[in-house]
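Can't paste images in this forum, so I'm doing it all in text. The chain is below; anyone willing to post the predicted structure tokens underneath?
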Amino acid sequence: MKSRRQFLTASAAVLPALALSACANTGTSNLSAASTESQRCKKPGGPSEKYFPNIVVMTHTGRKAWFYDDLIKGKIVGINFMSVKSEEQFPVTQNLAKVQELVGDKLGRGTFMVSITTDPEHDTPAVLEAFAKKHGAKDGWIFVTGKPSDMQALYQKLGAHGGYEGAGVNHHIWRYGNEPYARWAASHAMAKPHQLAERLSWVEVKKDPNCKKA
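Text version of the structure:
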């Protein structure tokens, strides 16, 4: 068994409000080895544990993370697929940049946006970091890449109705939900920004002010 110290979160100055486990940030450059290690470092799952693949990904800040454990579990999240090369043809990131402005202070504080590349061979963490900066991505909007086979698996699980063609894929699906309450739905990633921001608010659990703790 591994000690609690091995589950320390990453520095808030690097990636605020995102709990990157030490198991995911071991420093190994081999993602396959890190994926195998996840079986020894597994944390208690949440309501959507069986649905979301818990593979190792790399964030645009160069950090390793478990896709489910670190990026999805316990959060309200919007998930989309993108690639740097396809942005001109299908400007989903440009559209979501407007969504993050509407989400406001909630972003990075319980509500997150996760953009998954379908072109990992080109979209390295460094490329995604520059891309994120170009679009003004704030804390709480995470761009991820990883092994091509893992990115394909994520796409086939969460996004596609049809084949996977890497950078040429149609980035039209936007998944959103509340993981702790297992509330999930989907929309078009190019819907009007206020509609997408509103959908994130729909899955929030509103507290009844008349209810008091026993």
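The CA atoms of residues 32 and 95 lie 33 Å apart. Residues 92-103 form the longest helix (12 residues).
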